[in-house]
């Protein structure tokens, strides 16, 4: 039956009341939600910093992907420093429930052979999010970890324990060149250079870390399978050195023999090719083993790279540069005779000694061959400070070499002295009162080997970035320092040093030239130690086309301590080894028998030409009580 149109349907009052209450509840809820939203918007706008550290607002987390560190190779492309993937066992102690800490410690010891004491320390560091339990897991430990149950009671106990793959530095040639190569430490971004070349070229070797993101649950745990690589890492550049690992090993062995023979505290050896400036060996003994550098952190001498960081008073080695300056400026000639008297030269009551006084007049040849302090002092005085300083700086002294090794000093040529007295100039002429570096000596000596031209040293051959396009390191700019005539004269004198002078112990089957030096070590409290020395010999050969420049320094040799007797045999052993290596001959050659210091004499000159008498000069200290070599 149809309802009449136009008539209002009767509605139950009870139903109307329900509808009204529903509308009121809905309106109240909407108003409440609007109020909460407005409050949140107000608080977030006024106090945004309160929300920055609330992890409950995050559902993902970013992290660093360490880049593969660049390697270091020798001149024959053999790795001196390489990378090895190691597996590291770690725990997040902050998320381990307190009631499970003891169970976890016992489980780590029982199942994974973690050191009990360290496991207890690591797991109980409640405020830490990452503690390394095993730095380098064995294959057995890795397999045992993989066999642990991920579910049940065992899974809950080991829930916050994990394994990560990282790169670790390895040294295929052992401790060869350790102080020069340096070592690294581990950071979140990967390996970072802490010493030596690792530190000096850290930016190149480190590369660029990548970045990943993953999803986390409310307890901060990564959800398996959720990690994505946001930015891939870029590997570091490889560095190729001019150093030859075989030559480095030869030099280290010979230098150690010299240290053992003389009772020295340590030593330095540098080998270069004078025609190119390429450094083939940089030796400092005792040496740090970079694979176990932690054992050397309290051994300053082992950490110290004396081949690159030493600044010392070289003694008589500097006489060849003083004489070269005198010849170049014309204050002396090749056949000049200097009047040095029959004893010490007095300068206003102070004296400069020699180890022997064979004749009142000495030729320039004798001054170099038999290493006269007095003769070199007279030449320095005749030159004057400005001229001598100019020439020494021209030879490269007083300035760091272009190798720019970490902590490489520039040396001191008395430029900071407010006033230069004649004693300062006199002692400067025979290598005292100034400091130079081993690198500067071998670079300066290349001037005589190269007929007056200085060839800068070179250690980095090329840098190869991950793109594979090698960047060859350009050689330094060569420059003329002295005339070839002067260089040839001084070389002739240095041949005499080896054949009949203070370095007969360095003589070999192949002709060579060189110069000795013996200097008292400076006492930090003032003056010099009485019986503590640096002994030096630097030479090159074979002549007339020298292939090798070799510097040997012994630190505090006991007996013998003169440069020729202490360092000469080390030079000979290295030089012979290099020549045999180049010739492909491995038979033993006869060595020149060692001679004692007493056999070294000054030969009286018979040349009667120009005589320079420079009178008496002021001297305010005596660096030698018994003369010098």
Count up the helices: 20
The CATH architecture of the domain at 245-292 and 308-612 is 3-Layer(aba) Sandwich
By DSSP, the count of extended strands is 24
Structural shape: elongated
Helix vs. strand class: alpha+beta
In percent, how helical is the residue content?
Answer: 25-40%
CATH-defined fold name of the domain at 245-292 and 308-612: Beta-lactamase
Q: Determine and state the CATH class of the domain at 245-292 and 308-612.
A: Alpha Beta
Radius of gyration: 37 Å
How much beta, percentage-wise?
15-25%
* CATH homologous group name of the domain at 245-292 and 308-612: DD-peptidase/beta-lactamase superfamily
Task: Set down the secondary structure blueprint.
Blueprint: H1 13-46, H2 49-52, E1 60-65, E2 72-73, E3 79-91, H3 101-112, H4 116-123, E4 131-134, H5 139-146, H6 152-157, E5 161-170, H7 178-181, E6 184-187, E7 190-193, H8 196-200, H9 202-206, E8 210-215, E9 228-231, E10 238-241, H10 245-262, E11 266-273, E12 278-285, H11 300-303, H12 306-309, H13 319-329, E13 337-339, E14 345-347, E15 350-352, E16 361-363, H14 364-369, H15 373-383, H16 385-394, H17 422-429, H18 438-449, E17 453-454, E18 460-464, E19 471-472, E20 479-480, H19 484-500, E21 513-522, E22 528-541, E23 548-555, H20 563-583, E24 611-612
Parallel strand pairs: 2-10, 13-24
Antiparallel strand pairs: 1-8, 2-3, 3-4, 3-5, 6-7, 8-9, 10-18, 11-12, 11-23, 13-16, 14-15, 17-20, 18-19, 21-22, 22-23
Helix pairs in contact: 3-4, 10-20, 13-15, 13-16, 13-19, 15-17
């Amino acid at each position: 039956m149809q309802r009449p149109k136009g008539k209002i349907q009767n509605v139950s009052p009870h139903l109307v009341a329900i509808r009204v209450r529903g509308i009121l509840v809905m309106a109240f809820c909407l108003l409440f939600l609007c109020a909460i939203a407005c409050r949140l918007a107000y608080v977030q706008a006024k106090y945004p910093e309160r929300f920055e550290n609330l992890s409950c607002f995050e559902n993902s987390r970013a992290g660093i992907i360490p880049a593969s560190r660049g390697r270091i190779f020798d001149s024959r492309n053999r790795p001196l420093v390489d990378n090895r993937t190691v597996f590291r066992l770690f725990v997040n102690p902050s998320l381990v429930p307190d009631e499970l800490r003891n169970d976890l410690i016992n489980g780590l010891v029982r199942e994974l052979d973690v050191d009990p004491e360290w496991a207890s320390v690591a797991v109980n560091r409640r405020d830490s999010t990452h503690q390394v339990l095993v730095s380098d897991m064995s294959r057995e430990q890795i397999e045992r970890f993989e066999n642990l149950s991920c579910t049940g009671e065992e899974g809950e106990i080991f829930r916050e324990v994990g394994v990560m793959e990282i790169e670790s530095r390895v040294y295929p040639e052992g401790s060869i060149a350790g102080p020069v190569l340096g070592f690294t430490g581990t950071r979140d971004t990967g390996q970072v250079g802490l010493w030596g070349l690792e530190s000096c070229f850290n930016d190149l070797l480190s590369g660029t870390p990548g970045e990943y993101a993953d999803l986390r649950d409310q307890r901060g745990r990564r959800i398996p399978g959720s990690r994505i690589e946001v930015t891939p890492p870029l590997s570091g550049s490889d560095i190729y050195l001019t150093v030859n690992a075989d030559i480095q090993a030869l030099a280290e062995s010979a230098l150690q023999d010299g240290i053992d023979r003389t009772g020295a505290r340590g030593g330095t050896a540098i080998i270069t090719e004078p025609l190119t400036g390429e450094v083939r060996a940089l030796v400092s003994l005792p040496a740090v083993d970079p694979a176990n550098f932690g054992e050397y952190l309290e051994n300053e001498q082992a950490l110290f790279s004396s081949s690159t960081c030493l600044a010392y008073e070289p003694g008589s080695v500097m006489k060849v540069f003083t004489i070269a300056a005198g010849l170049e400026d014309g204050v002396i000639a090749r056949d000049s005779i200097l009047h040095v008297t029959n004893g010490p030269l007095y300068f206003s009551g102070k004296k400069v000694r020699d180890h022997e006084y064979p004749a009142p007049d000495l030729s320039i040849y004798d001054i170099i061959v038999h290493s006269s302090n007095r003769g070199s002092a007279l030449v320095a005085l005749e030159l004057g400070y400005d001229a001598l300083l100019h020439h020494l700086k021209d030879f490269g002294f007083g300035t760091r070499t272009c190798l720019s090794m970490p902590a490489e000093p520039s040396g001191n040529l008395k430029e900071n002295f407010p006033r230069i007295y004649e004693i300062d100039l006199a002692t400067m002429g025979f290598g005292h009162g100034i400091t130079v570096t081993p690198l500067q000596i071998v670079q300066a000596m290349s001037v005589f080997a190269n007929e007056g031209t200085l060839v800068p040293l070179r250690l980095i051959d090329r840098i190869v970035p991950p793109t594979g396009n090698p960047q060859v390191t350009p050689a330094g700019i060569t420059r003329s320092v002295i005339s070839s005539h002067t260089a040839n004269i001084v070389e002739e004198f240095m041949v005499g040093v080896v054949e009949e002078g203070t370095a007969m112990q360095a003589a070999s089957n192949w002709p060579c030239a060189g110069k000795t030096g013996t200097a008292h070590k400076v006492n930090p409290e003032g003056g010099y130690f009485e019986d503590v020395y640096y002994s030096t010999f630097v030479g090159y050969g074979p002549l007339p086309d020298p292939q090798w420049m070799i510097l040997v320094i012994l630190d505090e040799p006991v007996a013998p301590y003169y440069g020729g007797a202490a360092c000469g045999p080390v030079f000979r052993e290295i030089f012979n080894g290099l020549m045999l290596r180049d010739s492909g001959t491995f038979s033993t050659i006869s060595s020149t028998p060692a001679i004692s210091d007493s056999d070294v004499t000054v030969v009286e000159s018979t040349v009667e030409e120009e005589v320079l008498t420079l009178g008496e000069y002021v001297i305010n200290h005596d660096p030698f009580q018994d003369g010098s070599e």
